[in-house]
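Below is a filled-in request sheet from our internal design queue. Each sheet records the structural input a requester submitted and the sequence that came back. We keep these sheets so that new team members can see what a complete request looks like end to end.

REQUESTER: design group, bay 2
PRIORITY: normal
MODE: inverse folding
CHAIN LENGTH: 375
BACKBONE (tokenized):
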């Protein structure tokens, strides 16, 4: 028995297979990235709210894939004239459910990205900005979900046009949702740029770090393409089960691309394997003129004090090196750690990355040699 994945036949052509295959491929790729992300965070014992949110987004994407493929199996992708009334109602009912989970995917993904920003960019006022953005995105997502669920009263009128019901203007809602969705994508894309520009990194390292966050631009592009597809389906008398396939396809691409891009800043290892030349710039060692943070200046001062108190008659050398973990460096998000010393002092950097400088002071005298090391 042939598997029905929306391939149609000569008498009843269908474009549903495009949607069916796209849905499966995209959700599998998104699941791979989420699995790598969660595996990295769990192994390092660094699971946070951003990871929970992206896991919820993936779960909703799986349900989105299942419902949209059930719509295809029921006839979504064929011309309405080739469908029996019960087939069309079943297809549109599954499509209605898929719309709800599509908006859930977007909401959880955007909140996950903002939670990641809140976790990484710890300098004021960025935590407060992220908190406000999370509240706004959550409100936007809930509003869109409620508008989707209650677009018609009774609910059945949303998929069965033979039912007498009161419905909102779907075209106006689709336009409003598409515009606000694209706008929030661009806001999320632009938010990390100011703090990244302030990082005291070599320009090559800075470009590498910004390139990771710039991958979010792909989500903006898919949102724009989907908005264009929405515009095309609102002009003239369109067949909802036949003409909406390109729009629905880009809906699935957009939802899963958002999940993938939300995982990229956390996945240092896999990205280095795929793009070694570009991605190694963010972990390259810098010699000599590497900018220290304000806290690291205390270490050379301590070394100088020891040198001055050690006495005369010997030679002194200082040697300093900076580890590859930099404050706010997204490559080391999966390597975040706080020293016990900082934690015991009540440091406010709960989830940030502590930049440390190793200083070695060597004293060689006539009769003895001592080496003092600080971290």
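RETURNED SEQUENCE:
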């Amino acid at each position: 028995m042939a598997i029905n994945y929306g391939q149609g036949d000569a008498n009843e052509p269908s474009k549903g297979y495009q949607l069916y295959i796209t849905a499966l491929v995209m959700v599998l790729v998104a699941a791979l990235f989420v699995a790598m992300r969660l595996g990295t965070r769990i192994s390092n014992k660094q699971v946070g709210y951003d990871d929970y949110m992206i896991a919820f987004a993936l779960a909703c994407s799986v349900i989105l894939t299942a419902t949209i493929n059930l719509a295809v199996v029921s006839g979504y992708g064929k011309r309405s004239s080739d469908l029996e009334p019960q087939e069309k109602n079943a297809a549109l009912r599954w499509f209605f459910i898929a719309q709800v989970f599509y908006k859930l995917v977007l909401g959880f993904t955007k909140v996950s990205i903002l939670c990641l920003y809140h976790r990484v960019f710890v300098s004021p006022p960025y935590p407060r900005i992220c908190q406000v953005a999370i509240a706004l995105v959550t409100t936007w997502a809930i509003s869109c979900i409620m508008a989707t669920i209650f677009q018609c009263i009774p609910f059945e009128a949303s998929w069965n046009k033979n039912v007498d019901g009161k419905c909102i203007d779907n075209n106006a809602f689709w336009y409003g949702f598409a515009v606000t969705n694209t706008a929030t994508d661009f806001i999320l894309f632009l938010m990390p740029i100011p703090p990244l520009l302030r990082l005291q990194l070599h320009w090559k390292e800075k470009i590498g770090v910004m390139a990771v966050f710039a991958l979010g631009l792909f989500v903006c592009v898919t949102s724009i393409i989907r908005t264009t597809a929405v515009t095309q389906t609102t002009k003239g008398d369109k067949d909802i089960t036949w003409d909406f396939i390109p729009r629905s396809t880009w809906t699935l691409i957009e939802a899963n691309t958002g999940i993938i891009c939300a995982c990229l800043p956390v996945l240092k290892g896999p990205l280095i394997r795929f793009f070694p030349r570009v991605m190694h710039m963010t972990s390259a060692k810098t010699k000599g003129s590497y900018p220290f943070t304000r806290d690291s200046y205390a270490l050379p001062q301590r070394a100088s004090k020891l040198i001055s108190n050690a006495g005369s008659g010997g030679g002194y050398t200082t040697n300093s090196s900076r580890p590859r973990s930099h404050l706010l460096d997204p490559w080391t998000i999966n390597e975040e750690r706080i020293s016990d010393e900082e934690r015991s002092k009540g440091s406010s950097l709960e989830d940030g990355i502590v930049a440390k400088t190793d200083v070695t002071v060597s004293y060689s005298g006539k009769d003895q040699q001592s080496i003092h090391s600080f971290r």
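SHEET NOTES:
- DSSP finds 13 helices and five strands in the chain.
- Confidence is low (pLDDT under 50) at residues 278-375.
FILED BY: M.R.
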